[in-house]
Amino acid sequence: MKICLIGPTYPFRGGISHYTTLLFRHLKKIHQTSFIAFSRQYPKCLFPGKTDIDPSQKYIQESGVEKVLDSMNPFTWLKAAKIIISHNPDLVIIPWWVSFWAPQFWTISLLIKMLTRSKILFLCHNVVEHESKWMDKILTRIVLKKGDFFIVHSSEDQSNLKAIIPDARVRKTFHPTYDVFNMADYGADKIRDRYKINGNILLFFGFVRPYKGLKYLIKALPEIIKTNNVTLLVVGEFWKDKIDYLSLIKALGLEKNVIIVDDYILNEEVGDYFSAADLVVQPYTSATGSGVVQTAFGFSKPVLATRVGCLPEVIDHGETGFLVEPKDSHGLAKAVDQYFNQTDREAMKDKIKKENYRFSWGKMVEVIDELLKKEQVK
């Protein structure tokens, strides 16, 4: 089967870039696969972080990538479409996660539909982006209407898609595990020594945005530290409102119990933080897919999360982690106490390892194959 994948890869950073790169790596093992990548993602004025360029020394990248697509140059949209049309693929895979890409992906999809018989698969990381506005939803519908079928990573996103496109042919499957960060001589002692941490570590990892619910985890800490020697390690860039979190930490007298690493973490250092963690915590108030939980599982680390989006579908409560209701600081505190004082940690780690294939990239490729085979039978 001939497949063409569109999306970001190195030198761009972040979960979507890692995802498309790893998908390309595994697709081309089985199929004749081309990858049309971005030459530029966002103008600097529109990117909320420090930069979208990956500063890592150890890159997640693959050879055979054509870096063509510039978000701000319509001529490159046409060039990308021309290249795809020349490949004449059976399937074109386009990631969808934010409406900023609506003009580009709509243009490319339209030309593919007009000039080829290729099928289009939208791989939806978020059907409707976090903290979206009404215009985002309109743009999403316009673009996704060009898709022949879809993959989502949660029941919530499946429902969101059906609300926009009732007759959508959609398959829900798990977000694959990020085990690719096992790329260095990582170890728990590196982080403990660097930040002088004694006792247990709770890890909150990733960009800090309101929907990720960090404030509820901070509010749970006074209850947690009554019976547990715990440090909360907050690792990731604050896009805004950092002062509010710092004020909350100070008001609760938690300065000695919270360490903030306000930065994008290099690929070669990700393993240090996850190996140091005793428990990864995702106190989200909303979610669809999650690369963080799959990174944690890649290091056999249990995850405490809320019952939103895909999280209750990938975390087996009491077996591979714990689930509580969103915005429930007391529930978070109880679950942390249960983990440290009532749980067989080694048994939980073994259970996570046994679940690996469900979250493998091989399984993801199988799902894509099944979708196209069903289409060809019709």
Spell out the blueprint of helices and strands:
Layout lengths: L1 E6 L7 H13 L4 E9 L24 E6 L3 H14 L3 E6 L5 H14 L3 E6 L9 H11 L4 E4 L2 H10 L5 E3 L15 H8 L4 E6 L8 H11 L5 E6 L6 H10 L6 E4 L5 H10 L2 E4 L8 H8 L4 E4 L4 H4 L6 E4 L4 H14 L2 H10 L6 H17 L1
Parallel strand pairs: 1-2, 1-4, 2-3, 4-5, 5-6, 6-7, 8-9, 8-11, 9-10, 11-12, 12-13
If you had to describe this structure to a student in words, what would you say it looks like?
- By secondary structure, the chain is of the alpha/beta class.
- The protein has two domains: 2-176 and 360-377, 3-Layer(aba) Sandwich (Rossmann fold); 188-358, 3-Layer(aba) Sandwich (Rossmann fold), CATH 3.40.50.
- The protein is 41% helix and 18% strand.
- It contains 14 helices and 13 strands.
- The chain has helices spanning 15-27, 74-87, 102-115, 134-144, 155-164, 188-195, 214-224, 242-251, 267-276, 291-298, 311-314, 329-342, 345-354, 361-377, and strands at residues 2-7, 32-40, 65-70, 91-96, 119-124, 149-152, 170-172, 200-205, 230-235, 258-261, 279-282, 303-306, 321-324.
- The chain has a seven-stranded parallel sheet, with helices on both faces. A six-stranded parallel sheet has the order 10-9-8-11-12-13, sandwiched between helices.
- Helix 1 packs across helix 14 (361-377) and helix 3 packs parallel to helix 4 (134-144).
- The longest helix has 17 residues, at 361-377.
- The chain is globular.
- The mean pLDDT is 90.
